[in-house]
Specification:
CATH topology of the largest domain: Aspartate Aminotransferase, domain 2
Shape: globular
Number of strands: 11
CATH superfamily of the largest domain: Type I PLP-dependent aspartate aminotransferase-like (Major domain)
Low-confidence stretches: none
Number of domains: 2
Strand order of the largest sheet: 2-8-7-6-5-3-4
Helix content: 40-55%
Order of helices and strands: HHHEHHEHEHEHEHEHEEHHHEHEEH
Largest sheet: 7 strands, mixed
CATH architecture of the largest domain: 3-Layer(aba) Sandwich
Radius of gyration: 21 Å
Structural class: alpha/beta
CATH class of the largest domain: Alpha Beta
Number of helices: 15
Mean pLDDT: 91
């Protein structure tokens, strides 16, 4: 793709409030492909790292799924590796059609990606500008704010409610000229839900011309109502999905954005081209396994419940979660707790500035969480 901004593109950028000085940055974005040049998902994950990690350490710091892909998906990916010398765009097309059928939308309402952070970044680039702000929850997933910073769009952070849901009324009232309202449901890092009624209220009352981006990366761990029906009704909403969480494909990269074709069209100027056929076929086959979501959800919930019982008995404050992660109050700067747990060979997650003594914990396997309990008993004694 050319790194020259066309006259029509220049006019559109000026209309959105960008100065001519910003054209160079957009030229970079248009040629960046899969490596958008700002703080990315990998950099976010590194915030949870502590020094060198022993091979036998328990890793419950990055919201990964230790189960990995299901057997059927793993076999499909292994079987296609020898064909990796060809692009095989039809595999991505098959994934798109499969997801569309399950979600009750037309294939043209689905845009596949390598994970969901990529389309989240693109939504910010498409819907925000120096005159169109981004509104997010605090604490929340910060990737959208990093993209907004890169294009000089203002980000408004709105505290969660007392029940740790998105305060949608405060978010909508924050800026009458907002370009994008971001709701992660269940939320990262708190793992808490925002009600469907609140989401519908936000959609009905948001500023004219703005877009609601509903990040459902952790949807399958919860009983929350998917937002795909809102997409099917042609609402001003983009729904993000990933196969990194329940489906166990974080390192294999597969995801999608669901939205009206005209909204998805706005994400295309930053296209990354061909997608990995391993991720695409793994995602498609995962969707076809009828047992998978229910089985993994039940397994994770049982382990999470045992962990919560342990914390309650220890009188350790935590935020009840509907996801595969939760936050616990460690009664000290979270980084100190991370370092102490690392000495016990247990990697735990970081804190957010608005909750500096809370550490985010990923729910691992039963064995991993037993080791977590032993380490916490020692460190929190």
């Amino acid at each position: 793709m050319s790194n020259i901004i066309t006259l029509e593109e220049q006019k559109e950028l000026l209309k959105r409030g960008f100065s001519r000085r910003a054209f160079g940055r957009f030229a970079t974005l248009l040629t960046a492909g899969a490596t958008l040049p700002f703080y990315n998902e990998a950099a976010m994950a590194q915030l949870s790292q502590v020094g060198n990690v022993p091979a036998d350490a328990v890793r419950i710091n990055a919201n990964e799924n230790p189960l990995g892909p299901c057997k059927e998906a793993a076999e499909a990916m292994h079987g296609i590796i020898q064909g990796g010398g060809r692009y095989q765009y039809d595999i991505t097309g098959d994934f798109t059609k499969t997801l569309a059928a399950i979600e009750g939308v037309k294939p043209s309402y689905v845009m596949p990606f390598a994970g969901s952070s990529d389309p989240l970044h693109r939504c910010v680039l498409a819907f925000c500008s120096p005159t169109k702000s981004l509104v997010v929850a605090d604490p929340g997933y910060e990737a959208a704010g990093r993209a907004a910073e890169y294009i000089s769009a203002k980000t408004y952070q709105v505290p969660l409610t007392k029940t740790y849901a998105h305060d949608v009324k405060a978010m909508i009232a924050k800026d009458t000229n907002a370009g994008m309202i971001y709701i992660c449901n269940p939320n990262n890092p708190s793992g808490t839900l925002t009600s469907r009624a609140d989401i519908e209220w936000a959609l009905a009352n948001k500023p004219a011309g703005s877009v609601l981006v509903l990040d459902e990366a952790y949807l399958h761990f919860s009983d929350a109502t998917p937002g795909s029906d809102l997409v099917a009704k042609d609402k001003d909403v983009v729904v993000l999905r990933t196969f990194s969480k329940l489906f166990g494909m974080a390192g294999l990269r597969a995801g999608a954005a669901l939205g009206r074709p005209d909204l998805l069209e706005k994400l295309k100027p930053f296209s990354a081209g061909a997608l990995p056929i391993t991720g695409m076929i793994g995602a498609k086959v995962s969707l076809e396994q009828k047992y998978l979501v229910a089985e993994r959800k039940k397994n994770m919930r049982a382990i999470r419940s045992e962990t919560f019982d342990f914390l309650a008995k220890k009188n350790i404050t935590f935020i009840p979660s509907d996801s595969n992660c939760f936050m616990m109050d460690v009664k000290r700067p979270a980084r100190e707790f991370m370092a102490a747990m690392m000495k016990e060979k247990v990697l735990v997650g970081r804190a957010w500035p608005s909750m500096p003594t809370y550490s985010r914990i990923t729910v691992g396997t039963k064995e991993e969480m037993l080791k977590f309990q032993a380490a916490v008993s020692k460190v929190m004694a």
